[in-house]
């Protein structure tokens, strides 16, 4: 319930103003002594009147409430500018650095209302003059008492005329006897009197019009029949739709009503304004005007969907900002994930992501911005790509309710599978279907299902390869220390750490191990989960840290088309892959292999492999350890994200998945044969991995100079 203030009255107090920490919105903070300085863009205090005008409260004082933390009372000093406007009012106090935004709802009421409710005054009532049949004026105050009624003789005359009335004429059942035939037939155009001259009672009671007598029961039956016969007639129809002399008659009145409703709906679309800050302005309730006499569900759904999609709007500000996301050709994009940042970096989101409505709109509560400050919009939806570069995706709100339209979307082009024949995924899928004797067309198991099985079985096969091996298969991830950041996110598939080192330009490696948790000098470089921590002062700026680990799994496999940067050092992956699924984990592909498969331009149609050193899941940019050569700058470029040792693994993984599928199908003979082939292939893979990784295998704890691997590491690195 809003606090009430008396109009044009000075020194009124606004109670119950709570100051709470902006970090959690719960912890009380000490209120300021006054509102001095609350007149900046990020620190302000305003009294907002019913007519929309505002008063600066920067010089007003606050007094704290005893025994209540964070609670204060505000004294309004000036009656001519604060409370001189009747109606709703609000006090808004903002200082994002010290306390949460404060909004106090108030009601400025009239002096008469205030004095009657809180003082000794009375509520007013208009006097009305009523004349009776005697010609005497009765002056009523709205109460039961009569304050004036003429002279005493006049009152006696009225009394004489009312002596024969019952004590309570209006009461139900009050006795009032009329003489027989006292109401004459001429009054009712009948041959006899009404009520009847003789006593009439019981089931013989009749109603009379003229000389015709109709039993009331019969009359009720006739009325029921009439209602049934006319039930299908439209209310207030004018002409009933049908055929008259061979020509169809028009339903004029009903059609007119439908046209009126249709016009009103279109008027709401065109002229609606903000209702309590929740309904968007006219530009967003758009639609088509239907033909006369029709109303489509489109009209009503438009209004309902807009109200629903813009209710419960959240954000850090007080101004409703409506964003419309469309393609570059102007087509709205529904169910698109949208968020807003204060810089052109998707990770700087200041609002919880929301999804666009069926009309491509989404709303946030934001602050005004001026000068060179802008908000930036970011979008994501499967099957679409978005131009999230400034100034195409930036905006600067300045009004209480404002709208912006962004034509930044485009339907993604997936490409053709004819260019992915050399892909690890393509070869593995073909090998699985070949070994289980299942056709690619009308197959029981989809490509998505088989790829998911490959991703699940990959850790098992890695375990087989690394088990009891002194030279395990390792995944290599690099991190560049920028001199200030102390925490770096590693891929979610990272497992046991084998080595952490820096590689000098001379080829020598410096290895690092974590110091004790309670070491007075600090821990140096250490890992907690997937986070690599670097103690300040340990490394020089731009030092590249290499982490070798036993992978616990594999990132999501996929192939498709991509865009190569002009320097050849990075690629932007598609929103939707041609085959497989793009991984949404941050740094998911860090340490994976980027394989450039084909290009539609013959000059760039060459296979190239690069190690991915970093991956931004939001922008979909994968950065390589070295530039591509040649750099495909035209045509369509096809790629895939594949595991290490892809040429060896596709046969092993395909055979293993085929064996599992055969077992599931109950074909144990085929499954046993495939498992025998799998074990033989895995044996060769183990031997190949041992010798191919021997020179670069990570240093193991307990190695000494007597260990050949140690001597080779020292000699060659």
Give your account of this protein's structure.
The chain is an alpha+beta fold. Among the domains are: 3-118, Immunoglobulin-like, CATH 2.60.40; 255-309, no CATH class; 319-411, Immunoglobulin-like (Sandwich), CATH 2.60.40; 475-549, no CATH class. Helix content is 21%, strand content 26%. The chain is built from ten helices and 36 strands. The strands form ten sheets. A six-stranded antiparallel barrel has the order 30-31-35-34-33-36. A five-stranded mixed beta sheet has the order 1-8-7-3-4. A four-stranded mixed beta sheet has the order 18-15-22-20, with no helix packed on it. Strand 3 (43-48) and strand 4 (54-56) form a beta hairpin.
Strand and helix map with partners:
Elements: E1 3-6, E2 12-18, E3 43-48, E4 54-56, E5 62-64, E6 71-76, E7 87-95, E8 99-109, H1 111-118, E9 128-131, E10 137-140, H2 152-162, E11 206-209, E12 212-215, H3 216-229, E13 242-244, E14 247-249, H4 252-271, H5 297-309, E15 319-327, E16 337-341, E17 354-355, E18 361-366, E19 375-380, E20 384-386, E21 394-395, E22 401-411, H6 424-436, H7 447-466, E23 475-481, E24 487-489, E25 497-503, E26 509-511, E27 525-528, E28 531-534, E29 543-549, E30 558-564, E31 570-572, E32 579-580, E33 593-599, E34 608-616, E35 621-624, E36 637-642, H8 646-664, H9 668-693, H10 708-716
Parallel strand pairs: 1-8, 15-22
Antiparallel strand pairs: 2-6, 3-4, 3-7, 5-6, 7-8, 9-10, 11-12, 13-14, 15-18, 16-17, 16-19, 19-21, 20-22, 23-29, 24-28, 25-26, 25-29, 27-28, 30-31, 30-32, 30-36, 31-35, 33-34, 33-36, 34-35
């Amino acid at each position: 319930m809003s606090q009430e203030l008396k109009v044009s009255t000075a020194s009124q107090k606004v109670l119950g103003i709570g100051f709470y920490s902006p970090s959690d919105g719960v912890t009380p903070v000490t209120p300021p002594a006054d509102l001095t300085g609350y007149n900046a863009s990020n620190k302000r205090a305003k009294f907002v009147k019913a007519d929309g005008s505002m008063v600066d409260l920067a010089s007003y004082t606050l007094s704290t409430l005893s025994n209540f933390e964070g609670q204060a009372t505000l004294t309004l000093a000036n009656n001519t500018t604060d409370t001189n406007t009747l109606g709703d009012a609000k006090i808004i106090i903002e200082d994002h650095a010290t306390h949460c935004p404060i909004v106090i709802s108030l009601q400025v009421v009239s002096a008469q209302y205030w004095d009657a409710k809180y003082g000794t005054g009375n509520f007013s009532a208009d006097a009305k003059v009523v004349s009776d049949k005697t010609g005497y004026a009765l002056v009523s105050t709205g109460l039961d008492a009569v304050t004036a009624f003429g002279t005493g003789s006049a009152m006696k005359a009225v009394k004489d005329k009312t002596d024969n009335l019952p004590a309570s004429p209006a009461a139900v059942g009050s006795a009032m006897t009329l003489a027989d035939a006292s109401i004459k037939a001429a009054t009712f155009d009948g041959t006899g009197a009404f009520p009847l001259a003789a006593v009439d009672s019981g089931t013989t009671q009749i109603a009379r019009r003229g000389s015709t007598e109709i039993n009331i029961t019969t009359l009720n039956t006739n009325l029921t029949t009439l209602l049934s016969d006319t039930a299908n007639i439209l209310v207030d129809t004018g002409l009933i739709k049908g055929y008259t002399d061979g020509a169809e008659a028009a339903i004029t009145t009903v059609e007119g009503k439908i046209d009126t409703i249709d016009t009103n709906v279109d008027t709401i679309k065109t002229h609606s304004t903000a209702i309590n800050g929740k309904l968007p302005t006219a530009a967003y309730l758009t639609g088509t005007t239907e033909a006369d006499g029709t109303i489509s569900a489109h009209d009503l759904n438009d209004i309902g969907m807009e109200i629903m999609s813009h209710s419960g709007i959240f954000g850090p500000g007080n101004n409703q900002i409506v964003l419309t996301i469309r393609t570059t050709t102007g087509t709205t994009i529904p169910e698109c994930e949208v968020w807003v940042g204060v810089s052109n970096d998707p990770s700087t989101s200041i609002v919880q992501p929301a999804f666009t409505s069926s009309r491509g709109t989404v709303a946030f509560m934001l602050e005004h911005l001026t000068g060179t400050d802008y908000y930036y919009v970011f979008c994501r939806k499967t099957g679409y790509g978005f131009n999230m570069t400034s100034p195409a995706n930036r905006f600067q709100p300045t009004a209480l309710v404002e709208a912006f339209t962004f034509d930044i979307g485009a339907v993604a082009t997936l490409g053709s599978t004819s260019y992915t024949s050399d892909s690890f995924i393509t070869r593995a899928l073909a090998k699985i279907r070949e070994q289980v004797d299942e056709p690619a067309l009308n197959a029981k198991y989809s490509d998505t299902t088989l790829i998911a099985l490959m991703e699940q079985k990959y850790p098992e096969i890695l375990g087989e390869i690394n088990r009891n091996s002194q030279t395990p298969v390792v995944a290599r991830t690099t991190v560049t220390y920028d001199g200030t950041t102390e925490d770096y996110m590693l891929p979610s598939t990272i497992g046991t750490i084998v080595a952490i080192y820096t590689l000098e330009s001379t080829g020598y490696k410096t290895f690092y191990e974590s110091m004790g948790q309670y070491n007075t000098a600090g821990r140096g470089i250490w890992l907690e989960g997937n986070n690599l921590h670097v103690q300040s002062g340990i490394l020089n700026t731009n030092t590249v840290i290499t982490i070798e680990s036993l992978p616990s799994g594999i990132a999501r496999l996929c192939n498709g088309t991509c865009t190569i940067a002009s320097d050849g050092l990075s690629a932007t992956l598609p929103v939707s892959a041609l085959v497989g699924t793009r991984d949404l984990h941050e740094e998911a592909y860090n340490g994976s292999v980027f394989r450039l498969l084909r290009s539609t331009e013959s000059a760039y149609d060459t296979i190239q492999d690069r190690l991915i050193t970093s991956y931004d899941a939001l922008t979909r940019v994968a950065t390589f350890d070295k530039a591509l050569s040649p750099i495909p700058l035209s045509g369509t470029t096809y790629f895939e994200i594949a595991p290490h040792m892809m040429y060896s693994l596709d046969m092993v993984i395909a055979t293993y998945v085929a064996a599992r599928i055969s077992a599931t199908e109950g074909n144990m003979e085929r499954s046993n044969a495939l498992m025998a082939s799998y074990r033989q292939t895995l044996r060769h893979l183990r031997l190949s991995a041992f010798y191919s990784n021997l020179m670069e295998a990570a240093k193991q704890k307990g190695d000494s100079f007597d260990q050949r691997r140690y001597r080779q590491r020292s000699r060659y690195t």
